[in-house]
Each structure stands twice: as structure tokens, then as C-alpha cells.
Design a protein that fits this description.
There is one protein chain. Helices cover 26% and strands 27% of the residues. By secondary structure, it is of the alpha+beta class. The strands form eight sheets. Strands 20, 21, 22, 23, 24, 27 and 30 form a seven-stranded mixed β-sheet that branches. The longest helix is centred in the first third of the chain and has 22 residues, at 92-113. It is globular, with a radius of gyration of 30 Å. The relative contact order is 0.08. Residues 174-276 form the 2',5'-phosphodiesterase 12-like N-terminal domain.
């Protein structure tokens, strides 16, 4: 079975399970139809099959052109759910014959249990065999569909399947929820952003209903597990619990939908644990006062932030040497993710460039959470690593035109753009080997303004080599980065400006910072021997950009027990962009409340840079 078929079968199994659990076998079909007709509001299950002649049953079809099989689901009058997989190219007549066989078996099974059937039994005590059920498919306009038509063509949305006297309306590819999860850690005052994957729908078109657990009974809705649930007055995708919810679990009821306001069957998920108390004041609370609203037209609120990868936070070295002052629970991923999602959501940013993003954190936490706040995410992993870079952009302000990510070591070896640099580095084999061993990457995305399509912009994001003595390696990496960005902004999209964000692991006194700001670096600069004479690699370099740090040179953007300094920057093209405002960093008192970073009130050892940029 290929990947698409496996995914389809998995989705169908989930759908089937949800349908069976929704109302029980004998009422399932009626409740499902009533739910859809009500627009997602709760309704009583209604009569069993055949009791309501004006209401049609439902037959759900999943038919995807890229897969060889189609799936069909319906419920017979005896309450048994039937799930069939048929070749899309198979003639309709064969599928109808199979349905007739299945329906006949169900009818016979029900007859055996019927007192009436036993009363009418023959001399041997067996029920009188039922006449074969007629099974036909009618098109939307009421015409009988020919039996030599293929399944893919026959089973259209709005068609009617008739099994005996019972009619089923065909719903082809209705929206469905493939995955629905709540975070494991819930904190009062921090947004709960569910992870949602849909098929034939989109999370922004789904309907949401939130419930809180009611201690001691008296709620609206009992669950099979015995809990009593009270609906919260929130119909949004994101729910922020209050102190009143501490100690209570949450439940989410999600009805999948699409842009045509078509809705599928709902799914529910309950939190695995209760809401817990939050940490109180956080370092970013005062910053949110400046960013309550999304920036206006012509402005680009930009964030750059090293969020501290979990693979680095959850080590014995981190707990005992790097961050011994940080409470162990505050280094846990679930706890830090609560803080991080609230922090990022509160900045109302148009662009967010993140470094040290765990692959699973991007997919399972940040991308779903920021998607709920209108941001689309892109991810580039480091080779041989489990973390990388993430760039998010606001969907109603930008569309993605193209991506041009590179790994520095691979580009230096194979891309003709860097031949001159390769030749300059060749006489220094030890430095060259060190550069090629590094897994650092550059993420480059070209965006187009939705309001003014003539405005395009290049967003670059990177995390350079970390070692304190690696200044020479960082110079080579930034030379590769700037050469690649020049290719994108001059050759591929001539004249577009650049915003270059990242953790450059370089203070303002280093050669790397001087090179970006001035456009050149001399071959006798001290950073070429940053790791001693053996790794010396003297060369002069230039680049054509006019770049400056939008947030200036803060005293520090990284504050840990043994070091503090400015390592992070948002460099902008001053020919096209200017700074409207810089969001103040947390005060020194806020940063050091718990000695250093990270802490119970700050999720990373770095501090986010935030500024509003404007087109010139």
C-alpha cells in the first residue's frame, strides 16, 4: 500500500470510529444527518431509519484522484456500519452488487433476531428468506446512473443511493478531522492552541466549542468516562483558561469545515491533565503593551528569536552547568512552550524568524499555534540535527513566492556562486575542514505583499557557528550567506530589499558584525586567527548591501549565568527600509529576577528582538 493509500485508510478508520462513537449503532445515521442540517448545533438523535420519510440517510464517499481506491461508508437500518473500498475504475454495477450482498446479509441477520421472523418461520424453524434488496444509484438530477460508469465518475456529491426503500444522500469528500490534539501542559492565562489536521477542509473554517470539567456534577453534558462538562462561552480556535479553571480539565468539540461552509462530522478531545496555575508576571508582559494590535499598512513588525532547542535544554550539562539557577520544571518543553506561544502570539508580528527550533516543536506546537493567529510557517532543519530554523509570515499581508534555503557547507563546495571564496579558502585546509564540518544553514524566503504586489522582499534567517573562538568560521559562513542572498535579490528578483535575521553568535566588536555593517573585511583582521595560527585563513571580502542593525546594539540579547552579550540582530536594507519603532527589551531587573535566563518567567536564554519597519 502506498503512502497516500495508507493515509487515506488511517483517516477513514478515524472517521468510522468517530461516527460509531457519535451516537451508537442504531441512531448513528440519523444523528449525523441531523447534526449537519443543524449547522453543528446539538440535536436529539431522532427516529430510527425509516421513521422520518422526509430525511435522507447519508453515504460518505472518499475519492482522491491520486489513489487507486475509493472508500464508501453508510449505515444500514439494523444499525450496522458498512465500510467498503472499491477500485475507482471498477464499473458501478459491481459496487452496487456488493452493496446488495452486504445489505442482504444485514437484513437476514436482523430478521433472525426478530420475533416476527420467528413467528413466520417455516417447519424447520428457519426464517423465510427475504427477497434480494434492489440497489440503485441516481444522479443529482434524479436520473439512474448506468452500471457501466466507473465508480470515480458515478459517486458524485449530491447523488442518491437507494437500498431497498431507504435512500442515502451521497457526500463526496466532506471535510474531516484527521488529527486533533490538546497540549499536555495547560496554564491559566496562557492560550491553548489545539493541533488540528483536516482533509477537504481547513482549520480556519472549522467550528469550535470548548468545555470545562464540572467538579461534583451539575454540568451540561456527561461523557462516557463519567465527567460532567460545562460549555464555555468561547467559539474560537484558541482558548485561554483563567484562574477559575485551575484544577479542571478541558474538552474541545471540533466540527471540520471548508470555505464553502460545508461541514463534516465532529470530533472531540479531552485534555490529559487539568489546568495549572501560571507563573505570574513574565518578562514579555510589558512588551505586549506595545504590540497589542497588528501593525498598519506599509509596516512590517519583525521578530528574531533564538528559542532554545529542547535537545539543548534537556541535558545534564544544561541543568547542572549552563542553567543551574533555573528550576528543573521550567526547562521542561511543555512548560516552556506555554510561555513561548503566549509570548509570540502577543507580539502580533508580521514576520517571525526563529532559531533553535526542534523539528517536533515546529510541527506539533509552534506551527499549529501560530497558524491560529494568522501566521504561516516554513521550516529548515540542520543536517544531522533535530533542530533548525523557522520563518513565519502573516497570511493576510504576504504570500510566499519561493524558498532558497542552503546549507553553508554544501553550497560552499558545490555552488558556482562561491568559487572565488573556495579558491581563497583552499590554501587553509584546517579552516576549510572546520567550515565543512559545520551543519549551519541559511533559510531564505521571498515574499510578496498582498496589498501591493509590486512590493517583494527577501527574508533571510540563520544561526551561525557557536564557538567563542570560531570568528573565522563565522566570517566564512556569513560570506556564503551574503553571496547567496545577493544572487536571490539581484539575479532572481532584481532590486528587492532584504531583512536578515538571526543568532549570529557575534558581538558588535567582532569582524562578522563589522563586515555586515561596512561591506568589507580586511585580510589582516584579528578574527581570521580567532582560533590560533593553525586555523588562520586570511582573506579580504566584500558584499554589495547597505545593511544596518534595526534594533541597534543592545547591551545583551543572551543572558546566562556565565555570559551576557549582544548576539542577535535584525539587519535591514537601508536603501528600501527604515525603522518605525523598536520594542524595548525587558528591563535588567526583569531579566535578573530569577538570576538569569531561562527562568520560570522566560522560556529561552535569548531575548526576542522586535521592531516595526516601514517601506521608504
Amino acid at each position: 500500500m502506498n503512502g497516500g493509500c495508507r493515509a487515506g485508510w488511517f483517516m477513514w478508520s478515524l472517521l468510522w470510529g468517530e461516527l460509531r462513537a457519535a451516537a451508537g449503532p442504531s441512531r448513528l445515521r440519523c444523528r449525523s444527518a441531523a447534526f449537519l442540517s443543524s449547522g453543528g448545533d446539538a440535536v436529539s438523535p431522532g427516529p430510527a431509519c425509516g421513521d422520518s420519510p422526509g430525511r435522507m440517510e447519508r453515504a460518505v464517499v472518499r475519492c482522491v484522484p491520486s489513489e487507486p481506491k475509493m472508500s464508501l461508508w453508510f449505515v444500514l437500518c439494523d444499525g450496522s456500519a458498512k465500510h467498503m473500498q472499491r477500485d475507482q475504475t471498477e464499473p458501478l454495477g459491481r459496487a452496487l452488487a456488493r452493496i446488495a450482498t452486504n445489505a442482504g446479509k444485514g437484513h437476514a441477520k436482523a430478521a433472525k433476531k426478530s420475533k416476527k421472523a420467528r413467528a413466520e418461520a417455516g417447519p424447520a424453524g428457519e426464517p423465510v428468506p427475504a427477497a434480494p434488496l434492489a440497489v440503485r444509484l441516481f444522479s443529482r438530477d434524479g436520473e439512474s446512473v448506468a452500471e457501466d460508469v466507473s465508480n470515480a465518475e458515478a459517486w458524485q456529491d449530491g447523488a442518491v443511493l437507494q437500498i431497498g426503500e431507504v435512500k442515502y444522500q451521497v457526500e463526496r469528500n466532506p471535510p474531516s478531522v484527521i488529527e486533533l490534539q490538546l497540549p499536555r501542559s495547560l496554564l491559566a492565562g496562557f492560550p491553548v492552541c489545539p493541533k488540528i489536521h483536516t482533509e477537504f477542509g481547513a482549520p480556519q473554517h472549522c467550528l469550535f466549542r470548548w468545555y470545562r470539567e464540572q467538579p461534583g456534577g451539575g454540568g451540561d453534558e456527561p461523557s462516557p468516562g463519567g465527567a460532567i462538562w460545562v460549555e464555555a462561552p468561547v467559539r474560537d480556535r484558541v482558548f485561554t483558561p483563567t484562574n477559575a479553571h485551575i484544577g479542571l480539565r478541558l474538552k474541545l468539540h471540533c466540527t471540520p469545515g471548508n470555505s464553502q461552509q460545508r461541514y463534516g462530522l465532529p470530533r472531540e478531545v479531552e485534555s490529559s491533565g487539568p489546568v495549572e496555575a501560571g507563573p505570574g508576571a513574565c518578562t514579555f508582559d510589558s512588551r505586549h503593551l506595545y504590540t497589542k494590535k497588528v501593525s498598519g499598512e506599509g509596516l512590517i513588525r519583525t521578530v528574531s528569536y533564538n528559542v532554545l532547542a529542547d535537545i539543548y535544554a534537556q541535558t545534564e550539562h544544561s541543568r547542572t552547568v549552563l542553567y543551574p539557577y533555573c528550576a528543573p520544571y521550567a526547562l521542561e518543553l511543555d512548560y516552556r512552550q506555554n510561555l513561548l506561544k503566549k509570548e509570540l502570539a502577543g507580539y502580533s508580528a508580521d514576520l517571525i524568524c526563529l532559531q533553535e527550533v526542534d523539528k517536533s516543536v515546529f510541527a506539533d506546537s509552534l506551527a499549529p499555534a501560530l497558524d491560529a493567529f494568522g501566521l504561516e510557517g516554513l521550516f529548515r532543519i540542520k543536517e544531522k540535527q533535530h533542530e533548525g530554523l523557522a520563518t513565519f509570515y502573516r497570511r493576510d499581508k504576504f504570500t510566499l513566492l519561493s524558498e532558497h534555503d542552503i546549507a553553508f557547507n554544501e553550497a560552499l563546495v558545490s555552488d558556482p556562486l562561491h568559487k572565488e571564496l573556495r579558491d581563497k579558502l583552499a590554501p587553509y585546509p584546517l579552516a576549510q575542514e572546520k567550515v565543512l564540518q559545520r551543519s549551519s544553514v541559511l533559510q531564505v524566503s521571498v515574499l510578496q505583499s498582498t496589498n501591493d504586489p509590486s512590493r517583494k522582499i527577501c527574508i533571510a534567517n540563520t544561526h551561525l557557528y557557536w564557538h567563542p573562538k570560531g570568528g573565522n568560521i563565522r566570517l566564512i559562513q556569513i560570506a556564503v550567506a551574503l553571496s547567496h542572498i545577493r544572487h536571490v535579490t539581484c539575479d532572481l528578483y532584481p532590486g528587492i530589499p532584504v531583512i536578515f535575521c538571526g543568532d549570529f553568535n557575534s558581538t558588535p566588536s567582532t569582524g562578522m558584525y563589522s563586515f555586515i555593517n561596512s561591506g568589507n573585511i580586511a585580510e589582516d583582521h584579528e578574527d581570521w586567527v580567532s582560533n590560533g595560527e593553525e586555523e588562520r585563513c586570511n582573506m579580504s571580502l566584500t558584499h554589495p548591501f547597505k545593511l544596518q542593525s534595526a534594533c541597534g546594539e543592545p547591551a545583551y540579547t543572551n543572558y546566562v549565568g556565565g555570559f551576557h552579550g549582544c548576539l542577535d540582530y535584525i539587519f535591514i536594507d537601508i536603501n528600501a527600509l527604515e525603522v518605525e519603532q523598536v520594542i524595548p527589551l525587558p528591563s535588567h531587573e526583569e531579566v535578573t529576577t530569577h538570576q538569569a535566563l531561562p527562568s520560570v518567567s522566560h522560556p529561552s536564554d535569548h531575548i526576542a528582538l522586535i521592531c516595526d519597519l516601514k517601506w521608504k
